[in-house]
Amino acid sequence: MNSLAPDQCYSQGSKTLEYSTIVTQQRAWRAVCLCWVLSTVTGLVPIFGWHNREKIGVDERNATPGSIVCQFTTVMRMDYMVYFNFFGWVVLPLTIMMGLYAEIFYVIRKQLNKRAEASSDSSSKYYDKELKLAKSLSLVLFLFTVCWLPLHVMNCVHYFCPTCHVPKTAMYIGIFMSHANSAVNPLVYAFRINRFRRTLLQIWRRLLCKSNDPSLCNISPPAVAEKKLNQ
To answer: G-protein coupled receptors family 1 profile domain location, by residue (predicted)?
Structure first.
């Protein structure tokens, strides 16, 4: 079995130590809380006055019986949806994340090529794992773009070209796709990450298990099961 050279072991170990030093649990919690605060403030901006409240009920009076009326597209101002929501909170972060992922893939590919030349199996496995994780996260980013971009594009068309007609059916489909993105992410994690898939299957089995078949309900958590196997 091939072994890592001392400098390779030190490089890989130093990177792990550096990551553990920078990404502490406290800083991770702070980052999560900051994301929630920013998301809450962004969502509450229309309530603070950036809306079209005077137009509530106009579409309902003009709608035909039995038709579905979306009050959101009437009340929300398009300048908020385009400039603040799309350009500020979608285009800018998405561009930054795409640049970061491009840099991550470049670094991992570069390291894999170096390890292939050095015939270092242990190091290659480490970077293969990192590459698989990066692909999973980039897939999440891609699906986010696919699900949200149509709605924002239609908002831009509606705002910058008032005379252009955007079918309501297309708008409703875009709204549905944006909401469906939240349901797609767990499936991506389950498809790409084995531990997440096992946990998801465990949850579904507990939800679908029948009283006459208790064996389906008696399932050990993945962490416990792995610990028992190791013992």
So the answer is: 1-189
Domains and CATH numbers, the chain: 77-192 (1.20.1070.10), 194-231 (no CATH)
Q: What is the pLDDT of residue 229?
A: 40
What digits encode the pLDDT tens for the residues 100-154?
A: 999 989 888 888 787 766 666 666 777 788 888 888 889 999 999 999 999 999 9
Tokens representing 222? 């993945």
Predicted local distance difference test score (pLDDT) of residue 134? 86
> Quick check: 3 pLDDT over 50?
no
What rounded mean pLDDT belongs to the chain? 78
